[in-house]
Each structure stands twice: as C-alpha cells, then as structure tokens.
Design brief:
Layout lengths: L2 E7 L6 H9 L7 E6 L6 H11 L8 E6 L6 H11 L4 E4 L4 E3 L3 H11 L4 E9 L3 E3 L9 E5 L2 E4 L2 H4 L11 E4 L16 H12 L6 E12 L20 H6 L5 H21 L3 H10 L1 H14 L2
Parallel strand pairs: 1-2, 1-4, 2-3, 6-11
Antiparallel strand pairs: 4-10, 5-11, 6-7, 6-10, 8-9, 9-11
Helix pairs in contact: 1-2, 8-10
C-alpha cells in the first residue's frame, strides 16, 4: 500500500534533519512526503531542503512536496493542507522534531495487510527520558493479541479514554476514512485527540483498530512545545476543545473522554503554572467542570 507522511514544520531547524533521515532509511519507503512549512522564522526551510538534497538517493521512488505557507496558522491547519494533497492509501502525521524507527512503516504495512487493520496506533518512546506509551497493563483486557507485538483493540472509543493510552501523532489510517474530517484550527490544546475521536465517530462500522506495542516513534522532548510550555496566568490555559465540544453530551464515550482530558488538563496546569496562587485560581474557576468530569473519569476506571 502507498503511504503518505505529512510533516507540519514550524521553527524546528535543530531537528528536521533527523526527522528526514528517519524517513530516508525506512525499510519500506513512504510513497509520498508532504512537508508544510507554517511560515517558519528560523532556518527550518533551509535545513529541510539541504536534508532532502543530501538524502535524495534514498528518495528516488518518493514523491516529495514542500508547501510554504505565507502565514502562521498552527499545526492543525498545516496537517489539513497535507490531507488535501495526500495521494497514498495510508496517511500519517509526523511532527518535525520526531523520528520513525527504521522498521516503522514496514511493520505498519505488514500489520494492516495481514490482519486487515484500518487504523494502527503506534508505540511512542520519549527521548531522553525513555518514557514509553501506551502502558497496556491498565487496559490489557481491552486487547486481543494478534502477532509480532500487534494487538486488536476491541472498542477504541472506550480505550481512547484510558489515561495510559495515547492517540496523537502515532496513528496511521486508511486515507479514505478521513472523508471531510479535519483538524480544528481554532484549538491548540488537545486538538489532535479531538481530531482522531471525531474520525472514529464518523467511520462506518465494522472497522478494525490495531496497536503496535513497540517503539515506532521517537519523540524529542523539546522545550517550547505546547506540552512543555509555562504560563504566567491561569487564564492562559484554554479549556481543551473536546471538553467544550461534548460538555452537554449524555454519550458514555464522550463523557469518558472528557474525564480523561480533564485529568490531563489539570495535571498540565499544576505543572506549568508559576505559583500556588495561580494554581488555586485555576482550580477555583474551573471547579464545577473539574468535579463533573472527575466523576466521569472515576466511573470509567471502575
């Protein structure tokens, strides 16, 4: 199957070489690479083009497109641009400071063909901390072992709300299932899981979701990324888009998702706010939402 990799690029000149190198030495090369530069202000574009030139012999069978945007609109918009241009049977999104392990695309292709999988979730290893997700111990009963470290996920709408599960830039999907679903470009916190959750809710059943429980993606722990940002004031931390979207929903899975995201949102705020005063103000002003969604979180894990 032909595989398109979409890379949103913004001010990652220190990392883009390694990202391109990881694609150049894949055991199974992507058929198409689309890099969408989101109006970088550093040397990212120069380093990108130098890297592609250096690894040109490895990409002889790969269609490479560089899209240079004339305005910074965020990674969601850049991914949406890539979706529109993608021609592969499969599509995945690789951040410009992350790397695929050498067997990643080969393992994905094999699992999807052999097990008739429609969506594959990949294991992620954070560098340099060596932190790995997903930790399947907490949701092992929701999986069926297939072969070669791959599992079938019985009910992805349930598993996606496990605190030890992750569905982010580690997803490969048959492109036909994306249809008209796109990233919400007005959100910056948890917009990726919001995208995948909406995709899953719009795929006609039956569909099969697999998990490759091995380090397929190496994630660089980069200062300045949203997950590692600090805030001066509690008001700067927006409510995650999925909590806004489903806060009036009576659907079990919507509620479970809000419960899990509220926990991550609270932890994010406690880690990134500068003082106990700001932390207290965050909790006080969001107390009703946190209490309600905390109930959903506890109910999901019973």
């Amino acid at each position: 199957m032909k595989h398109t990799v979409v890379i949103p690029l913004y001010n990652k000149d220190a990392y883009i070489y390694d990202t391109i190198r990881s694609l150049a030495f894949q055991e199974k090369k992507p058929s198409q690479i689309i890099i969408v530069d989101d109006f970088s202000t550093d040397q990212s574009l120069i380093y990108l083009k130098d890297s592609l030139s250096f690894f040109a012999p490895q990409f002889l069978q790969t269609d490479i497109q560089i899209i240079e945007l004339n305005e910074n609109k965020g990674p969601g918009n850049a991914r949406n641009v890539g979706i529109e241009l993608a021609t592969g049977d499969l599509i995945s999104f690789l951040d410009a400071d992350d790397c695929y392990t050498s067997s990643c695309l080969s393992d994905v292709n094999s699992a999807m063909e052999k097990e008739n999988i429609d969506i594959v979730v990949l294991g992620m290893l954070w560098i340099p901390s060596n932190y790995y997700l997903p930790d399947i111990k907490s949701f092992e009963e929701e999986l069926t072992f297939l072969s070669n470290e791959s599992y079938l996920i019985h009910n992805i709408l349930h598993s996606i709300s496990s605190p030890d599960f992750i569905m982010s830039c580690n997803v490969v999907i048959r492109k036909k299932y994306l249809k008209d679903i796109r990233y919400d470009t007005h959100a910056s916190l948890n917009e990726v899981i919001d995208f995948w959750y909406r995709v899953l809710n719009n795929i006609p059943e039956p569909y099969r979701v697999g998990l490759l429980n091995k380090a397929c993606i190496e994630v660089r722990e980069v200062e300045g990324s949203l997950s590692r940002s600090s805030y001066a004031n509690w008001k700067e931390i927006e409510i995650p888009i999925s909590i806004k979207r489903y806060q009036k929903s009576a659907n079990r899975y919507d509620q479970q998702l809000m419960g899990m995201l509220s926990q991550r949102w609270l932890e994010h705020a406690m880690e990134r706010l500068p003082s106990w005063k700001q932390k207290a103000l965050f909790v006080l002003n969001h107390s009703r939402l946190l209490i309600k969604n905390g109930y959903y979180f506890r109910k999901r894990n019973k």
